[in-house]
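[audit] Reproducing an earlier prediction to check determinism. Same input, same settings, fresh worker. If the tokens differ from the archived copy the diff job will pick it up downstream; this log only records the rerun itself.
[audit] input (255 residues):
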Amino acid sequence: MIDIHCHLLPGIDDGPTDIQTSLRMARALIEDGVEAVICTPHILPGLWHNTGPLIRSAVSRLRSHLANEGLQLELFSGADAHIAVDFAVKLQTRDIPTLADSRYVLVELPQHMGPVLIKQFFFQLLTAGYVPILSHPERLPWIVEQYAIIESLARSGVWLQITSGSLLGDFGRTAQYWCERMLNDGLAHVLATDAHDAERRRPNLSKGREAAAKRIGEREAENLVSIRPRAILHNEAPENVPSPMGQSDVPLQNA
């Protein structure tokens, strides 16, 4: 399995505070059957001022620590980047890193603000040649009233990343419901841990995969945790990657 959304880097955001916690997380990932992780610290204006160079340097340091401990876990750089007006510009300058230097980029939307210009934002990224991946849409409070927006994004080229813990009920019944709904509707592209520590929000991808398999079958569960994540690492074009069940493409309008 491959985890494309994990806060594994120490002392860089609200993930692990020290290298010892990062190493415990790495061991838990390995024990869970994860072979590669994309390290995705927050980039959030006004709070987490991480940049591409800073993140790549932190990934390099953590690789050295893993090697010293004899831990076999591949690491790649990325970010859980919050939507911002200069998002596209920072992608071009690499201040916002894509996932494993691919065309795929993880995007975080506001928790407490309605999606006023969301379609326009994602349209711009898609037309610039990126494949945006919306992180944990099931935990957006406004999804209840705006699920049609999420559905429209997914059917027009935006990938959806749901969280293993959400599917398992760790974030409450509402987040679990929307995870299950997106799986049932054939909208979810990737399952990831969004792990932040070694206890409360520890890696749990295998349990999430098992829950997904019970709902949508083994083949699609494997697509969620292995086939599509590996396609991201290899920078494959999205049209060459298996689509979620029953999904048909509908172009996103710049409006």
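[audit] rerun output stored. Observation attached for the diff report: The mean pLDDT is 93.
[audit] end
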